[in-house]
């Protein structure tokens, strides 16, 4: 629901509760319609997984929300500000409140990791001194789980997993409230992917982020997503927790979550939960007796 349609006293609350609101989105490329009347609300503080078959328009949706793709129709509001009405470069006070990790990291190859992280800082805060820029960039590099000396390396000197973390460091440069991640675990080995998931969850919790996460990775969905939005038939056909989605009868959803890979991810999550429960009950058993 657009904020404008709400009574005055509810507007602020709605914006606080749903930092991203997409209504009636239409995106076309020539004769191809990618989105047709697509709507979605992202809740404050959640990790929303966005899934759908290849070419269903997940990246186009993300690009529309961050103003890189001008939709043919519809309304997109971020923190209550209309992205669709704004000019691409217009200062509307929200662009510095989000960070984006594009597919593949999208780092500038001629800049070091530290310099890459400084790019958004220089853009939004040109007055910051060189020394402070260097310090902030190093802090963001470490926050993303990279060693401090990675700040001085060029993207070509990094592994695939390190590049993702460097892209994440740049996405975190401006202390964003919203984090957009486009297939962050694609191309990572399972251990690297699990570590990246863990990092995303920790950052979300410690920094209070709201995360819009496009993924094909079922383990990521099970492990860290609070809700999942499913794109199919040019729209968001369902949004909810995985158990809620499993109750819907849409064939794509059933095939996706109940296919062999979906069942494996489900089983692995159950195993992890059992392990966590066993180790926590063991650690309770090992507690020193309470003093009288
Ligand atoms: N700039 C563009 N010009 C023309 N067509 C485009 C453009 N950007 C995207 N498309 C088309 O829009 C459709 C959706 O693309 P998008 O990249 O959003 O898919 P996706 O769901 O993210 O796919 P994947 O899971 O494979 O990454 C595709 O058919 C794509 O070819």
TrEMBL record:
InterPro entries: AAA+_ATPase, ABC_transporter-like_ATP-bd, ABC_transporter-like_CS, P-loop_NTPase. Residues 20-258 form the ABC transporter domain. Keywords: ATP-binding, Nucleotide-binding, Transport. SMART domains: AAA. Gene3D superfamilies: P-loop containing nucleotide triphosphate hydrolases (3.40.50.300). CDD domains: ABC_Org_Solvent_Resistant. GO terms for molecular function: ATP binding; ATP hydrolysis activity. Residues 259-292 are annotated as: Disordered. It comes from the Bacteria. It holds the Pfam family ABC_tran. This is ATP-binding cassette domain-containing protein.
């Amino acid at each position: 629901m657009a904020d404008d349609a709400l009574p005055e006293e509810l507007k602020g609350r709605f914006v606080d509760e749903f930092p991203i609101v997409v209504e009636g989105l239409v995106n076309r490329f020539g004769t191809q319609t990618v989105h047709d009347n697509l709507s979605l609300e992202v809740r404050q503080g959640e990790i929303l997984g966005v899934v759908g078959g290849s070419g269903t328009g997940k990246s186009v949706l993300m690009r529309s929300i961050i103003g890189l793709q001008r939709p043919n129709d519809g309304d997109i509001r971020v923190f209550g500000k209309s992205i669709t009405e704004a000019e691409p470069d217009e200062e509307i006070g929200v662009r510095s409140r989000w960070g984006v990790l594009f597919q593949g990291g999208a780092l500038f190859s001629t800049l070091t990791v530290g310099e890459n992280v400084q790019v958004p800082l220089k853009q939004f805060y040109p007055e910051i001194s060189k020394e402070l820029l260097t310090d902030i960039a190093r802090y963001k590099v470490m926050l993303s789980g990279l060693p401090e000396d990675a700040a001085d390396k060029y993207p070509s000197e990094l592994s695939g997993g390190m590049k993702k973390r460097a892209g994440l460091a740049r996405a975190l440069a401006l202390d964003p409230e919203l984090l957009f991640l486009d297939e962050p675990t694609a191309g990572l080995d399972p251990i690297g992917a699990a570590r990246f998931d863990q990092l995303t969850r920790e950052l979300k919790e410690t920094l209070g982020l709201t995360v819009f996460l496009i993924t094909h990775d079922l383990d990521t969905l099970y492990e860290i997503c609070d809700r999942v939005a499913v794109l199919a038939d040019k729209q968001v056909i369902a949004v909810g927790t995985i158990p809620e989605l499993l109750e819907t009868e849409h064939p794509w959803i059933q095939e996706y979550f109940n296919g062999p890979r979906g069942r494996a991810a489900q089983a692995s999550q159950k195993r992890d939960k059992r392990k966590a429960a066993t180790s926590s009950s063991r650690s309770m058993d090992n507690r020193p007796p309470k003093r009288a």
